[in-house]
Structures are given as C-alpha cells and as structure tokens.
Amino acid sequence: MNKLQYLDFFKRKAKRLLKDYKKYLSNDCIYLEPSILLSTMIEKFGDKATLMNAQHIVAQSAGFKKWEELIQAGFERLEKAKMDVEFDDDIVHIETENGFIGGSKDLFPGIFDVANVDTNFQPEIKPLKSFSDEEQEKILSKQPFERNTEEIVECLHCGHRFSFEEVNVERTSNFDYIVCKYYPGNCNGSLIDLIPANKLDEYEEARKTNKNP
What we know:
The chain contains seven helices and nine strands, in the order H-E-H-H-H-H-E-E-E-H-E-E-E-E-E-H. The chain is of the alpha+beta class. The chain has two domains: 3-106, no CATH class; 124-204, no CATH class. The chain has a three-stranded mixed sheet with strand order 1-3-2, with helices on both faces.
C-alpha cells in the first residue's frame, strides 16, 4: 500500500464508525458488545457525534492527537497506525431471521478457526454439563464473553430455546467451541448464535412498541 491507500483506509474507517454509531443509537441491532472504537465514540460524544468526531476517534486509535496529524504522517508511521486501528476493529454485523446481531471482532477469537488444523483430527462433541465443574469453568473461561450456565438462550440458527448448560462442546485440537444443543445433527449454530432469550424478548417488545403510533 502507498500513502494514499493508507489515507483512504482511515477515511473509510471513520465513515464506517459513524455508520455503526448511528445503527447502535437507533436500536436496529442487538449488540453483544460495541467495538473499542464505538465504545470510545459513545463515551466521548454521547448521541451528538459527527463524521469529524469519528475521524478524531480513528486518529487517536492510530496514535495521533488529531486527524490532521494522521493526514500529514509519513508512510512508515501510517503502516503501523493501520495495525493499531485494526486492533480496535469494526463491529461484526450478522443478519438473522430475528434481525441483526452485532459485536466486536475482538470478542470472537474462537469462532473462526484460523489456525492450521490437522484434517485427520476428529473433534469430540459432548454436552457442557457432562464435564466436571472444574472442566466447565476452564472451558467457559476461554470463551469470548462470560455466560451464565443457568440462563435461557435462543439459538438464532434453529430457533430453539434451552438452558445454556445444555449446549454442546466441540473439542478440537486447539480450542473448545461452544455450539448449539442440537449440533451437529439438526443445527450448525455456534456460540455467536446463542443469545440470551430475555434480550431477544426485550428487542422484540421494543420493536413492536416502536411500530405502534
């Protein structure tokens, strides 16, 4: 990439941040957790942020005091700054039959397996509750976010509701994946599909209320 391409990256990043910010404020999306960029923007500017504010947040994430400093920076510094901003990456938006689910990519390191995996390895699939309390705690501690094993969740992939302690665990060579209770026979839902049922109910109620005159 040359300097102009790096600058184009930061400009697009600021525009995308503003778009995510507006979506967050409009309640059009269930958010598991805002990205670092979005959290900072909301904390600093409340509901009054503009594109200029988004540029400021991106510039600070890149290690600059203000946007103008970023624009004037040299190629080598922009190269490192791009990596810093990508660390505070955009939100992942996933469209489901129940609407949009959003969350920071930083929350899902185990959902997409980017490591080299032995293709001959056959993963073991067992219910979470079949593990000892100590093993359960170890498995859950490595997941992207905390979950209450007693809470009721709904799988956005198959639509079933069940207690989180009933989920299955797919044990691979490098990670223990939380998957739907009905995986793999009747559902391919993973942890990101398992949403607290009360959150979905609140979202549906809010959507119905907003539709009423």
